[in-house]
């Protein structure tokens, strides 16, 4: 995956109260080490609509979701959105702290998310499917 910065998804996002609390804490903990990444995630959390975890509708990307995305060229990829310690690009486990991961959190089926590469190139994917993780505790 290409490293990218400056994401700007355009649509509203929905976040569970559990994910919102954990991701906000994670971003705040990273402000000193990786301020740009932390600020992007905090910005996403600030604009999110927060709902009770038990009331989250199907089809919304949350932590642990397996997401099928389609790139502009038509190719599809299945990824799992995970916390940084669980990320493994070879296993398609994408950290929420990557620009793509931050762009995907809270997105819904049919929604396009985009971000800019370091070189300023716009990158985007469309969410095709979301397999919801089982309910219960998730590790931060």
Keywords:
140 residues, Chitinase A, domain 3, 6-stranded mixed sheet, two-stranded parallel sheet, 24% helix
List the helices and strands and how they pair.
Blueprint: E1 4-5, E2 14-16, H1 17-30, H2 35-47, E3 49-51, E4 66-71, E5 76-82, E6 93-95, H3 99-104, E7 112-117, E8 122-131
Parallel strand pairs: 2-3, 5-6
Antiparallel strand pairs: 1-7, 4-5, 4-8, 7-8
Helix pairs in contact: 1-2
| Strand order, largest beta sheet | 1-7-8-4-5-6
Helix/sheet category: alpha/beta
Query: Could you report the average pLDDT, rounded to the nearest whole number?
Result: 86
Number of strands: 8
Order of helices and strands: EEHHEEEEHEE
CATH architecture assignment name: Roll
Uncertain runs are: 1-9, 136-140
Rg on CA atoms, Å? 14 Å
Largest sheet: 6 strands, mixed
Query: So what's the oligomer here?
Result: single chain
Q: What is the terminal separation in angstroms?
A: 22 Å
């Amino acid at each position: 995956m290409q490293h990218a910065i400056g994401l700007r998804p355009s649509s509203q996002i929905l976040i569970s109260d559990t994910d919102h609390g954990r991701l906000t804490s994670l971003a705040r903990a990273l402000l000193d080490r990786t301020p740009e990444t932390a600020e992007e995630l905090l910005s996403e959390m600030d604009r999110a609509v927060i709902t009770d975890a038990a009331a989250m509708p199907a089809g919304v990307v949350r932590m642990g979701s397996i997401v099928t995305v389609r790139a502009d060229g038509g190719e599809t990829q299945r990824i799992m959105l995970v916390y940084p310690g669980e990320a493994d690009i070879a296993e398609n486990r994408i950290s929420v702290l990557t620009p793509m991961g931050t762009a995907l959190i809270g997105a819904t089926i049919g929604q396009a998310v985009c971000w800019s590469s370091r070189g300023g190139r716009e990158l985007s994917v469309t969410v095709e499917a979301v397999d919801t993780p089982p309910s219960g505790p998730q590790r931060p």
